[in-house]
Design brief:
Elements (H helix, E strand, L loop, with lengths): L2 H21 L11 H4 L4 E2 L34 E11 L3 E13 L4 E14 L5 E4 L3 E10 L3 E10 L15 E13 L2 E12 L5 E14 L16 E13 L9 E11 L4 E10 L8 E10 L1
Antiparallel strand pairs: 1-6, 2-3, 2-14, 3-4, 4-5, 4-6, 6-7, 7-8, 8-9, 9-10, 10-11, 11-12, 12-13, 13-14
Length: 301
């Protein structure tokens, strides 16, 4: 891993965080009250509510924070901007990926995700490569919602914008249908899960993937009893544990399974800005990476 790049990005994150903490104290927190929830039907329903306005909220009906984990697409809809950087060490090369991601709830039940990655490859032998990777768009549809459970369907469309001749992209259109779930476990514990398949439309490649994440939120100051349905309060912290697994359906690696664990934490500077970091390691089986560090800066609209 190129440590100078890691330290530079970390410094940028800290400087941005310090500036944001002074510039925004969270006073414009868009409280929505319980009436926003009363308008939304409970349970599984494919009729009604598709074009209703998105109720601006970052907490569940039971006042548990909607925590966005690192690797999986959540079941809830939100309006957030992410600037993520991942520094991975591998047996043959190191990789740095910086990605800008926008998640935007269009209505109460329809959302869109836009992803633009920049990739830098540093092989042990040969010339380094860098440039834009494969961009993606992903509609999300909320299918079911109760006081404790949210279920959604996703369809990620990978665009071949990266140069495949330099290993910066797949060189083909990709589709990744998946289902996501979010469960409120109580006491500010929550679990998210996503499972689906990825398909290369030209090569016919396919693989199964799943992600599971456990989150716990707590306040470094203040009391949960004083929290209303609004933006995250300043000083709220989150601990996150994730497992990510993949199994190819075909090709030379057919039947093999890779599994990676991630341990992370995040901190809300104020009602708008959040910073987070994580460390990822392989767990048995084929190892796509030796380890990886992930750093993020998040803006909540």
């Amino acid at each position: 891993m190129k440590h100078s790049k890691l330290f530079l990005f970390a410094a940028c994150i800290l400087v941005s965080a310090a500036y944001c903490g002074r510039a925004d104290d969270g006073s414009h927190s868009h409280a929505v009250g319980t009436e926003g929830y009363a308008q939304a039907p409970l349970g599984f329903s494919l009729s009604g509510g598709w074009l209703d306005p998105w109720p601006h909220r970052h907490f569940s009906r039971r006042n548990t924070p909607f925590i966005h984990t690192f690797s999986l697409e959540p079941a809830f809809l939100d309006r957030d901007f992410f600037l993520d950087a991942r520094f991975a060490r591998g047996e043959d090369e190191d990789e740095m990926e910086v990605e800008a991601e926008l998640e935007w709830a269009l209505t109460r039940r329809i959302g869109m995700v836009f992803e633009v990655p920049y990739i830098s490859l540093g092989p042990d032998a040969g010339e380094s490569q860098s440039g834009i990777g494969d961009m993606a768009i992903a509609p999300r549809f909320l299918l079911a919602e109760t006081e404790r459970v949210i279920l959604s369907a996703n369809l990620e469309i990978g665009l071949p914008s990266g140069d495949s001749s330099r290993d910066l992209g797949s060189g083909e259109l990709g589709l990744a249908p998946s289902a996501s779930a979010w469960v409120d476990l109580g006491n500010w514990f929550s679990v998210g899960a996503q499972l689906g398949t990825e398909h290369g439309l030209e090569s016919g490649s396919a693989e199964f993937f799943y992600n599971v994440g456990l989150g716990y939120s707590f306040l470094t100051r203040g009391s949960k009893d004083s929290i209303e349905l609004r933006h995250f309060p300043s000083g709220m912290s989150n601990l996150i544990i994730e497992l990510t697994g993949r199994t190819p359906f075909d090709g030379p690696e057919r039947g093999s399974h890779s599994l990676e664990a991630l341990f992370g934490a995040s901190y809300n500077i104020n009602g708008r800005w959040e910073m987070r970091g994580g460390y990822q390691v392989p767990v048995g089986g084929p190892q796509e990476i030796d380890d990886a560090v992930v750093l993020s800066l998040i803006y909540h609209f």
